[in-house]
Amino acid sequence: MKHVLVLESDQATRATLADFLGAHAIRATSVANTEQLRRVLSKEIVDALLIEVNSEDGVDVVRGVAALTDAPILIVSGERTAEDDRVEGLEAGATDYICEPFGQREFLARIHVAMRDHRSPRSGTDRRSYTFGQFELLVRQRILRREGFDDVKLTSAEYNLLTAFLAAPRETLSRERLLAASRVHSGEIVDRSLDPLVLRLRRKIERNPAKPELIRTARGIGYRFESDVAFEERPRLKQSPPSV
Asked: In the prediction, which pLDDT does 233 show?
């Protein structure tokens, strides 16, 4: 599943973008400021970034982010923008500049094009793994290993769900967020299928699925992963990044 990092100051807009991307089989991580963005880039592999630019310092933000990562950057503006401003954003390091009004199909297509046209090869420096309890998840290989046992086979939906949990240990995740993360193809995962999916994953990682210790139910909200999680990775951050 592709991973898009969204930088947007407005909480409601962040949620709307995350839900839209999730509905189209794109995992979305939303942040409100560049400090949060830097933290995500330091521990996550990102396939593209959406950056909201509606302020005078927006281009400086784009320039700073472009110095951090080789992933394509798409500027999203909630208002019509003059040609000089669009050119300045592109020269600052953006791959595309999207201004309202635009349709959802066009918006999604431009995200896919940016990710498709980004040809920088993913080297071994992108490899990473998550470790929790007796398990190790090799992300690039999509292999779940358990000490002293054969590898655990995961479906695509189970894998996506597990990585969503591992990326946010001890954080209560809403059903909507987990549905978006678990979706393999648009419409494949619906609300009523989340609970059976969680049950299948519990059967593969819990000592006693009937009394889960790792994936705990947060009644009325969603689920929470109750375990310390260690990760080993070397994301695609450029060397000696300047501050943003």
From this structure: 55
- CATH second-level architecture of 126-231? Orthogonal Bundle (1.10)
Residues 6+ apart with CB under 8 A from 14: 6, 8, 30, 31, 32
| pLDDT tens for each residue of 162-193 | 988 998 899 999 988 888 777 654 444 445 67
Buried/exposed code over 22-38 (b: 16+ C-beta within 10 A; e: otherwise): bebbbbbbbbeebeebb
Task: Give CA–CA dist 24/214, Å, rounded.
Answer: 28
Q: What is the dihedral of CA 178, 179, 180, 185, to 10 degrees?
A: 140
3-state SS of 127-170 is CEEEEECCEEEECCCCEEEECCCCCECCCHHHHHHHHHHHCCCC
Domain 2-117 and domain 126-231, same fold? Reply is no
Q: Could you say which DSSP state residue 112 is in?
A: H
Give 198-219 pLDDT, tens digit per residue: 999 999 999 999 999 999 999 9
CA distance 100 to 80: 6
The stretches of 46-103 forming alpha helices (DSSP H) are 58-66, 83-91
- The structural domains of the chain, with segments of one domain joined by +, span 2-117, 126-231
Q: In the predicted model, is pLDDT for residue 77 greater than 80?
A: yes
Say what the pTM is.
Answer: 0.55
Pick the CATH number of 2-117 from 3.20.20.10, 3.40.50.2300, 3.40.50.300, 2.70.70.10: 3.40.50.2300
